[in-house]
Design goal:
By secondary structure, the protein is α/β, with parallel strands linked by helices. It has three helices and eleven strands; from the N terminus they run βββββββββββααα. Strands 1-3-5-7-9-11 form a six-stranded parallel beta sheet, with helices on one face. Strands 2-4-6-8-10 form a five-stranded parallel beta sheet, with no helix packed on it. It is elongated.
Length: about 200
């Protein structure tokens, strides 16, 4: 399997990935850039492919971030999973647009889309649009969208354990990055990345 894990450092990131028959790949992106970004990703899948995309984004100040992801199922019996997670502070605005296009005469493909976001202020915004373009019945597909505030019950539990409120909130926010962090086998590197993200989140107003 080809696996790529990286911190986004290009505010106009564009990539196109093509998987031939029987290939598998994972693309795992952590975005904590203090800037507006425009990300465009296109994935082309032939038959018996397996592709997994995870994007974890932190947005703050008044930046606007847009992520456009398109997956083309051109063959049969392929799997695509796209999961995006957003944490927005202050006046940050984030747009997640996921689209999967399934070839009309294809069969036995599986497509999954997930968008999750948490807002830390009344002025922060996250917009999500999962979209499946399917003209065949021989496929399994699902999508989910959930955007809201922190779970206060979880926050109360951590504070009862003696954790300061600011740190408790940051620990809860780390869950939006853990899908990527848990895929890193090197424990030292995982701890370094976790500490970096914790610091990037900064103080919670």
């Amino acid at each position: 399997m080809n696996k790529e894990v990286f911190f986004l450092d290009d505010k106009n990131y564009n990539t196109e990935i093509s998987l031939k028959d029987n290939q598998t790949s994972e693309l795992l992106i952590i975005d904590t850039m203090k800037d507006s970004v425009d990300v465009d990703i296109k994935i082309h899948l032939e038959s018996n492919c397996d592709f997994h995309l995870v994007i974890s984004s932190l947005n703050q100040n008044d930046y606007e971030k847009t992520y456009n992801v398109k997956v083309y199922h051109n063959g049969d019996s392929s799997v695509s999973k796209c999961e995006v997670f957003g944490v927005n502070k202050q006046e940050g605005k984030t747009n997640f647009f996921l689209e999967a296009i399934i070839k009309d005469d294809s069969k036995s493909n599986y497509c999954e889309q997930k968008i999750r976001g948490v807002l830390l202020s009344n002025k922060a915004e996250i917009k999500g649009k999962p979209n499946l373009i399917i003209n065949t019945n021989n496929i399994k597909a699902k999508h989910a969208l959930a955007i809201g505030r922190l779970n206060l019950a979880h926050l109360f539990y951590l504070q009862n354990k003696g954790i300061k409120k600011n740190d408790a909130i940051k620990l809860l926010l780390l869950s939006y990055f853990n899908v990527i962090l848990y895929k890193i086998n090197d424990e030292t590197k995982k701890e370094e990345l976790m500490e970096r993200i914790f610091n990037e989140i900064g103080d919670i107003e």
